[in-house]
Every structure is written in C-alpha cells, then in structure tokens.
C-alpha cells in the first residue's frame, strides 16, 4: 500500500505524536511566585495578568496551631480583621481562569505557628478546608473562591506533625476538587521541619529554597553546591515536580542570588536534565517587579 500523502490525518497524527515527545523530552517548566508581603507589588489580578507565572503562593497564614486563632497577613494589600480581604476572591478566580494555580502559603520566616499533636494537625486541616478550600464557613478570609491547594513554608516552631497535616489535607481530594500540596523546604537535606512530611510522597510541587543557605547555594561563579544539592533533592523526594527556589533580586535575600545569565546558561542546562524538573520559584513578586528577573529567564525556564 502506498504511503498516505502528507495532508492526511495519518501524517498529522504522527506529527502531533512527534511534537509531543519533543515537548516531554525538553522538560520545560514554569515560574512560581510568592505574592502578598508587599503592598507595592500590585494586585493579585495584575500579577496573573503579566503572563509570567504558572503558580502563585499567597503569603502568609502566619498564625495557627496549638489552639491559636488562625490569622492571615497580606501586608499592605488588605486588612483581614475587618473582612477587607474577601475581595481577593475575584483575583483568585481570575488567575485560575488563566490556568494559574493559586495556593495559600502556611508559615514564613516570621510568625507564630506550630502543631502540638495529631489532633491539632486535624483541626488545622479542617480550618483550612472550610476557610480556604472546598468547605464552608461564615468567616472565609479570602471570600468564597476555592484555592487550588496549600503551600508549606515552615521555618519555625515544631518539627512534628506536618506529615499528619499533609495526610489530612490530601484526604480532602476525595471530596471532589483535588487539593494540591506544595512545599518550600530549605536546601540543606533533609529539611529540619518538613523532612518527614516530604517523605509521605503527597506533595505535588516542591520548590526548594536555594538561598540564605551557603552550603547549598550559588556563590561567586560556583554552581557546584547548588547543582549537587539539586541532585540530592531530586533523588530523595517523591514529588511530581521539583523547582529551583531563588531570590528575584539581590535585595530579596541575604545571600544566594543567581544572576539571570548564570541561571540560564549554566544552571538550568544541568538541572533540566531531570524528569522531575518543574521550573523556578521566585521570592517574591515585589522584588521580581523591581529586577525584571522572570522576564529575563522566562524563555529558558
């Protein structure tokens, strides 16, 4: 039988399959950003409208656990104590309509949070489900929009029961909409707070903080520490995707800033070889605006 001419659906199907294989092999990724800690970084809606980001972490729920009344802090954006943050629901839905996943980030470098027991973890999970995810509550701080998931940026407090919190949150996926779990551990492996939680294999995206940690970050032209640490994380953690967490400008962190040209020409070609590569996480939207970091690297990520 003679081969079908190029205009037939058969040829189109082959071309589609070939193109798909190339896309998979390229290990292309997206950019995750933290938003919420500077009132001068623009609205959530404008953040997603830039078309720079695939994931947005709302920072932070900084107080929770151990019997405390949970509190969210979005810096100069709104005042949650007076119900002033409910209007962010429109921004959340706008981001999601563009295919951008929006998570609530727990913790941060400053706050009052800790888990005292498994029961405490259950209570926190219930609160998160009812107030930010698919449950119901009369006091939803961000309004009625349903977030895509919960981000663990745990840097203080207890080192126990975060795995229980992850399991309880993951169980809510059985009720309908998937609850994504993400985490931002420090690059020294294993992370002192999230090590046990990450071993559950329940986290979809892990954006490791390769900054403010001299043993495993970039410095003065030396990429060996950051690439070696990346290899350890990729080999040790069972997650859908791993992300390289970086400061978006020199002012965004005490140390570990990677110039965009170094990232795109030296570091990304190495780490993108991993099938788990998911992209780059940046702290934060405010610093990205100031430095134009995501615009400099977007085509290479």
From TrEMBL:
Its EC number is 3.2.1.14. The keyword Cytoplasm does not apply. Keywords: Carbohydrate metabolism, Chitin degradation, Disulfide bond, Glycosidase, Hydrolase, Polysaccharide degradation, Signal. Residues 1-28 form the signal peptide. It holds the Pfam family Glyco_hydro_18. Residues 29-301 form the GH18 domain. CDD domains: GH18_hevamine_XipI_class_III. InterPro entries: Cts1-like, GH, Glyco_hydro18_cat, Glyco_hydro_18_chit_AS, Glycosyl_Hydrlase18_Chitinase. It catalyses: Random endo-hydrolysis of N-acetyl-beta-D-glucosaminide (1->4)-beta-linkages in chitin and chitodextrins. Belongs to the glycosyl hydrolase 18 family. This is chitinase. It comes from Rhodamnia argentea. The gene is LOC115744504.
